[in-house]
Amino acid sequence: MDLGFKGKIALVTGAGSQVGFGKETALLLAKEGCEAVAVTDVNLEDVKKTAEAVKKLGCKSIAIGADITKKTEVDAMVKRAVDEYGKIDILCNVAGAILHKDYVPLDEQKYETWSKQIDLNLFGTMYVTRAVIPHMRKQKHGAIVNIGSGSTHQYSMGVGMYAISKYAIDLFTKQLAYQEGKNGIRCNCIAPGPAPTNFGAVLREGAPPPPPEQMKKMRDAMLVAFPLGRMGTATDIANITVIMASEATNYITGQVIQVSGGNVM
Ligand SMILES: NC(=O)c1ccc[n+]([C@@H]2O[C@H](COP(=O)([O-])OP(=O)(O)OC[C@H]3O[C@@H](n4cnc5c(N)ncnc54)[C@H](O)[C@@H]3O)[C@@H](O)[C@H]2O)c1
Predict the structure, then answer these.
(1) What is the CATH classification number for the domain harbouring 56?
(2) What percent of the chain lies above the pLDDT cut of 90?
(3) Number of domains in the chain
């Protein structure tokens, strides 16, 4: 199948984490034939490593440092990518995090935590998209893939404000898909289940991850709720993200796709 990536320029946010969905997505876009993949993250040193790994696959790449919650940094980041490659065909909005601890009731969280969570996951995604959209409109095509979360359907896990911010991304995806369809721009959302990346780092407040035995026990307990019997991987998420960015799915827009081994149906 031709995924239609020849000559395509992609921008991937949240690509700094060396074990995360963003880096895996950038590498797969490169492997599948994109001409260039611009990678960006709040952590410039890490995202430089990703750009080097992309280049090793024979694809052009630049690393751009930007905090997606800061509009001026986002605008400069998109301008830098467009100045370098002349256009952006594909945007993968991967950057995001959970900023509060599990099992803290919503009413016991600080207002500041609420707004930081929305600023990062929702407004951050919207700022990047807002900066990219005019370029896609000009060329009359574009594919945007947002990263949501299966937590939007998991009321028992105490993920409250994070889940609310991600549900808003589902709605943003649909609003944008409706608005931009006539301009040749598609927008879809991937909702991953839990996967072992750096994602939980905030919850641990700098503490190291639990020892492997304890991790295995925790995972085994969770797995009863996963019909396919295993946790997800960064590759599982990158595969579907890249397919949704490809021409193979050019009649699909406004969809939220659960990728969690059947954990959310
Ligand atoms: N791993 C999971 O279990 C899981 C499940 C559902 C959804 N998600 C979502 O997947 C996405 C990727 O997470 P991951 O699992 O790869 O985690 P990760 O922590 O490994 O990677 C996230 C990346 O986002 C970057 N980032 C964070 N804040 C940023 C900011 N303000 N500006 C720019 N970059 C910023 C980080 O530096 C990091 O490189 C996130 O949106 C997350 O909410 C993850």
Answers:
(1) 3.40.50.720
(2) 82
(3) 1
